Amino acid sequence: MATSSPVRVLCIGGSTRPNSSSEKAVKVSAAAAEAGGAVVDLMVSRDLMFPIYDTETADRTAEAERFVKAARAADALIIASPGYHGSMSGMLKNVLDYLEDTNKDERVYLDGVPVGCIAVSYGWQATVSTLQSIRTTVHALRGWPSPFGATINATEPIFDADGACIDDRARFGLETVAKQVVEFAQLRKAGLLPDVSGGSV
Length: 201
Hints:
This protein is of the alpha/beta class and 201 residues long. 37% of the residues lie in helices and 18% in strands. It is built from five helices and seven strands, in the order E-H-E-H-E-E-H-E-H-E-E-H. It has helices at 21-35, 62-73, 90-97, 124-140, 168-189, and strands at 8-13, 39-44, 76-84, 87-88, 114-121, 144-145, 150-153.
């Protein structure tokens, strides 16, 4: 399906530890999004270590400014979080808190934006609660969580030393998330879906 320009997908994820399983997971999805015709902006791990979001100052680090700029330009997002104590990591939640800087924009927060959701944890139980926490936050930001949410159990051999996904089930999930958000964003960009955004507050 042709659109006037390719959709832009902002992919964020990982932990404070570079090359973590959640970083590898979002990179697999990012590659699938590119293969589907999207232009990808990727921010992972140490790129996302912003100061705690502070409503009392407009001062922002270069990294935080880059994120907000990329979020404003994005037609879709993909988020991969490790499971920390049954929820998304504090780092990823803090990153999403920076979307408050868009509260006066024409498109507020993630209003009407498809968002792929990926949870990575040591054990299946934590992947479920982490995925739910991502979806809850995306809903609060007016985004559309992907119908399929990828869950990765990091206790199993999922990635090789180079970050390639060697588990067929996991790769299917990560690629499906990318496929769903890219196709949704392409349909929106082509004007084949109704406007589901609510506008500014």
